[in-house]
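Here's what a typical entry looks like (Molybdopterin-guanine dinucleotide biosynthesis protein MobB):
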Amino acid sequence: MAAAVFQITGYKNTGKTTLMCRLIDDLVSRGIKVATIKHDGHEFEAEAPHADTARHRNSGAIWSAITSSERTAIVKEEPSRLLELIGEAPADAFVLVEGFKQEVFPKLVIIRHADDERLLVDLKGIKAVAVWPEYRLREDHIPAGAMLFEINDVQGIGDYIRKTAWRSQS
């Protein structure tokens, strides 16, 4: 099981992927191994349509792997639960999860527009809120115990998520 887990959530086009990449850079610069898991609300294709593994799956394979001297990729023709994916992550990795809003791990919610604020009521496990510089979030809208960050405060967010992430008991 991974060493620590923290989620970055928000609606589409709020900056989740950009913040994730900036947090990965920050954590790696501190000597922390990072693994990532992303939820995609749409069908996705992880490889070129004419790649050998895609051809294998188009022929009926339900599981396909490709490996080289540099990396391995596995494609399964079935969904995976977040906990299952976390269990497959390296045991010494800090896992950053993008999406999976309804999961129970500690999370940061990104707020860019007024409509995004409903997530602050609907979601569980909110430990932090990141707002865009031009957005003013009322203090009484911040969930109890959650920290408020400006979305560009990557170092501050990185410090905070390291302290508040879910930790494996093993």
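The chain has a mean pLDDT of 91.

More examples are in the samples folder.
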